[in-house]
Amino acid sequence: xxxxxxxxxxxxxxxxxxxxxxxxxxxxxxxxxxxxxxxxxxxxxxxxxxxxxxxxxxxxxxxxxxxxxxxxxxxxxxxxxxxxxxxxxxxxxxxxxxxxxxxxxxxxxxxxxxxxxxxxxxxxxxxxxxxxxxxxxxxxxxxxxxxxxxxxxxxxxxxxxxxxxxxxxxxxxxxxxxxxxx
Amino acid sequence: xxxxxxxxxxxxxxxxxxxxxxxxxxxxxxxxxxxxxxxxxxxxxxxxxxxxxxxxxxxxxxxxxxxxxxxxxxxxxxxxxxxxxxxxxxxxxxxxxxxxxxxxxxxxxxxxxxxxxxxxxxxxxxxxxxxxxxxxxxxxxxxxxxxxxxxxxxxxxxxxxxxxxxxxxxxxxxxxxxxxxxxxxxxxxxxxxxxxxxxxxxxxxxxxxxxxxxxxxxxxxxxx
Lengths: 182, 224
Fold this sequence. Notes:
The structure holds two protein chains of two kinds.
Chain A: H1 4-16, H2 20-37, H3 40-57, H4 67-82, H5 87-106, H6 115-130, H7 134-141, H8 145-152, H9 167-179
Helix pairs in contact in A: 1-2, 1-3, 1-4, 2-3, 3-5, 3-6, 4-5, 6-7, 6-8
Chain B: E1 3-6, H1 8-16, H2 21-30, E2 33-37, H3 38-50, H4 57-68, E3 72-75, H5 80-90, E4 94-96, E5 99-100, H6 106-118, E6 122-124, H7 129-135, H8 137-148, E7 152-154, H9 156-166, E8 170-172, H10 174-183, H11 194-207, H12 214-222
Parallel strand pairs in B: 1-2, 1-6, 2-3, 6-8
Antiparallel strand pairs in B: 4-5, 4-7
Helix pairs in contact in B: 1-3, 1-4, 3-4, 5-6, 10-11, 11-12
């Protein structure tokens, strides 16, 4: 069971190595831990690791104009590592990281939705796919249920779990409820 | 006359698919009374209407319209005590590494408590986790194990309490309701495209978030 410090170290290493694939793997681990631990810090770390993996995957972010932004993210990640045992300081550092990511993106914005918002939605949808309810996924990520449903409806998540009630039974229930048939 | 309690997810996917007319149709034709607890109004109407982004405002207004037209009634049944107890039990059924897995939230639990209090066992719900908790907790457990890559332990007494509470509750989804609406002529105005329209509607509801698989839709389509 990796600790918050260890997970933070994994995020920092993936970022320093500019390894997008590794960052996505770290993101998977962080999100699994977040579901089990039910920790807001881990949810936030999952969101930022997703956003960072997207940044690492885009060649345009390796241009010189983004060098300062990269440096700032690295500094905040290092700071997070130092304060990972202090929840309050860690939360502040997470907010700083979120701001640094938004700043990096704002230099040349391509989408209406920011990378952080995209990350939040993606994490909410994954939580729902993992088995957390829609309402809870919405509550912990602060993403509206409508948005999660929109996203989830276009994935295969409902094909990945067996149904407990066969379809003919469900139709029978629907008929009874909606037509008053016994 | 039958009563059907709806959750936010079913109203969201129906309005998202522009198919809330189905509820008017079933309400008029079979005198079905659709009901929602106050928390559903909060989640599906008030919250999206208060958002800075107007992306879900229209869907929220359509739900509000359903309520204003009396097709969906808001119940003010008081179930806070039951809700809190049930929430605690439901979120202490499955354990990973000795820690309880939080599965459902206050709104979803309130809906179950309202169904219990009002003795309305008919639920219209497109959300998957709460439905699986009612219908097939062992399947939900194996799913969690597969997704989280850990062993999931079950607190049997809490599972039993939850099962006793939800006993007799039956859940249908918007897609199931759409099939019944089709059989009752809801898509008749499409004339020779009636079947095609029903099929397209099923896919549209799925893409709007209803928890139905492609296989189930295919099975429904074969029977249209």
